Amino acid sequence: MPENVVSAILGLHAQTSLHPGAGTALGIVDLPVQRERHTRWPTIPGSSLKGVLRDACRERYKSEYSGDRQRTNQESPRLRAAFGPHTEAAGESAGALSLTDARLLAFPVRSLRGVFAWVTSPAVLDRLRRDLALCRFGAIDWQVPHVEKNRVMLPSDDCPCLIEGGRIALEEFLFERAGDSDGRIAGWIADHVLPDSAAFDATRARFRRSLLVLHDDDFDHFAQYATEINARIGLDYETKTVKGGALFYEEYLPPETLFYALVLANEARARANGEHPSAGRAMGAVDVFDVLRETLPEVLQVGADQSIGKGYCATRLARGRHD
Questions:
Q1: Which residue numbers delimit the CRISPR type III-associated protein domain (predicted)?
Q2: What is the pTM assigned to this prediction?
């Protein structure tokens, strides 16, 4: 990572069901969620995230242009520098803010005790460690644990999901306790990825006690199949019966799903005064990063179905070390 690039991770904690759609499909589910090609784990495309963040940034700056969104989109130098010019001028320069696809970090699964638990796996945590090194987070004080199949590692003895015999029941599966994972894993994620507002104090405390580490194969099962499948219909206005061909099935990720994306800010390619690139002062990487930091809302709407309350995610932006 070049020294002049400012890096951070963006945490996304689903507050409602989430549908980062993949378009139509040939299977039973008509509208599945987007998944990584090689793992089949849910993901949120970086292009979608960047669009949502650009819209939030535009809403923040539009008061400077009498509330005119189009003028803001075309004329705001900070918006142009961070996210690139508007569509008609897209060939002038690229935006200086880069976002990766959001990666799945912890998935909520129904538990016999404690209502639900977040599950993760060594492969997920190993990838997180690599990403943190890329973002220059410095020394991380936890290691990726090893866990056998059908076993589970708990963050502490007071995990609310623990049943008699030292076992955990997730959905219809029983997992034998293999030992304690490093409680610092759940602590680090709670302190850097989950939202830091007072409203999330209880959530962070629960996460510290309820993050379970499963074998990669066990985690893979839940990430692929423990999603919500909802039937959607369209009604004929006159008869109030289902329109022909209007029944479809849509997949959602459950509330409490936790993602993170990498954020990289470079020096702006456009000039701060919004004029020709040969004029004015270019914004530095820190200035570009501050555009996102200052405009990032506490809650973003990501994915489809906004009008029925889907896709609301609480945010957290944690910057890596650059000293």
A1: 13-312
A2: 0.90
